[in-house]
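User: Please fill in residues for this 153-position structure.
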């Protein structure tokens, strides 16, 4: 009985807490290093390079609307594919081994349910992609025209 609860408890409680702690610790270390560099530069009187203190997200170029839409499409296709694979794998595995909800291992019985959830989220993202593509068609067209015309100086 106790062995059955250890894995779900780890996956649902311990692992998310560890991920959040690791991300926060990384950001805190990055901030501390930048503050340390600033303090040393101020103490020595050297001029500061402002580009040095931009975070990685600030240095990346802004994604266009079309690129963001393609991100939705990519995520939708991946989730739908994973969902279908889990559904098929779960059904085939249960049929081949003649598992039912009472006799089979709980994870194998739940595979089609997890697959269904992934499939539904992927389908929702696909719907969002098509709706946003239709509603943002004018903005995408403006963005493409702005990229085609060279800027005059």
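Assistant: Residues filled in for all 153 positions:
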């Amino acid at each position: 009985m106790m062995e059955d609860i250890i894995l779900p408890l780890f996956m649902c409680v311990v692992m998310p807490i560890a991920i959040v702690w690791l991300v926060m610790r990384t950001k805190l270390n990055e901030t501390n290093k930048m503050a340390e560099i600033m303090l040393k530069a101020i103490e020595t009187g050297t001029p500061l390079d402002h580009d040095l203190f931009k975070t990685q997200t600030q240095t990346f170029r802004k994604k266009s609307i079309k690129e963001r839409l393609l991100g939705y499409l990519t995520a939708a296709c991946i989730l739908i594919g994973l969902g279908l694979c889990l559904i098929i794998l779960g059904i085939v595995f249960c049929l081949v081994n003649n598992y039912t909800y009472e006799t089979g291992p709980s994870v194998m019985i739940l595979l089609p349910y997890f697959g269904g959830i992934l499939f539904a989220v992927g389908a929702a993202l696909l719907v969002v992609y098509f709706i946003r593509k239709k509603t943002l068609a004018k903005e995408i067209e403006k963005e493409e025209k702005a990229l085609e015309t060279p800027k005059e100086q």
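For context: Residues 2-44 form the longest helix (43 residues).
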